[in-house]
Amino acid sequence: MTTVGWPAQLFLIFGTCRCITTLNTRLGVEKESDTFIQKGYLGDILGTTPFVEKTGTIVRVDNGLGEWYGRARFDHPSPATLRVLQGLFSWVDETWKPSIIPSASGETIEELHDRCAFALQYLLTKEDEDDYRNETTADRSILICTHAASLIAIGRVLTGRMPDDLAEEDFLAFTAGISKFTRRTLPTRQNQAPVKKWEKGEAFPEVDWKNDKGVAGGWDCVVNGDCSHLQGGQERGW
Questions:
Q1: Helix, strand, or coil (residue 80)
Q2: What digits encode the pLDDT tens for the residues 150-209?
Q3: Dihedral angle over CA of 28, 32, 35, 38, nearest 10
Q4: What are phi and psi of 31, to 5 degrees?
């Protein structure tokens, strides 16, 4: 930031301010989310800082739910490493291992959906295991901050609804909008599938989520891209 100067800093202001408004006004800083899943770009994390410092929410950085780039013959930008982020933000969970690291040369749209399906199956199963271990029975929430294409894929993967036309406008993605998904079925400890793990160089582990099944018990979308709390309403949507 200090080397590229003010133009880059001003570029961050639009999305960062809308993110702060969403967290403080729509969610309320007094309400604590149990877990915050964040991607590792500095500008995105800056917008979450006031919320996290106020609530003490656990923040986990997971590349598996991060930005989507199409296939290319060159390497796309990558988020900061966990080591770099921990040096800047003490509240980043140092124990969390990302579910998957997308290819730096990009993905097809189908691969984006497969990646999000595995990442969600991984993190939701891990959260369920924590609940079983700690004998937690209260309802909990996970707040995911991500980019537009990934958000659309996440909506499809959670609900199990994959349209024939990949360009169908089903899950709305506007800057700092809010979508909410509620779980249909909570897996029991007895029928909970073990957590699959991905290793670098391997293909994404397959997850059976299509045909309205969804991941980890299936989910229903009850709020879709709401921007009513933002002064400018819906902006920069896909």
A1: coil
A2: 999 999 999 999 999 988 889 999 888 889 999 998 777 666 666 777 777 777 788 999
A3: 30
A4: -95, 125
Residues with Cβ within 8 Å of residue 138, at least 6 apart in sequence: none
Task: Give the pairing type, strands 178-183 and 58-61.
Answer: unpaired
Rounded Cα distance, 16 and 176, in Å: 9
Contacts 24+ apart (CB under 8 A), 165-170: 166/109
Return the minimum-mean-pLDDT range out of 10-14, 99-103, 225-229.
Answer: 10-14
Taken in order 167, 171, 172, 175, is the CA torsion positive or negative? negative
Q: Taking the alpha carbons of 141, 145, 151, 153 in that order, is the dihedral positive or negative?
A: negative
SS3 123: helix
Predicted TM-score of the model (pTM): 0.80
Alpha helices, DSSP H, located in the chain: 6-21, 42-55, 82-88, 109-134, 148-159
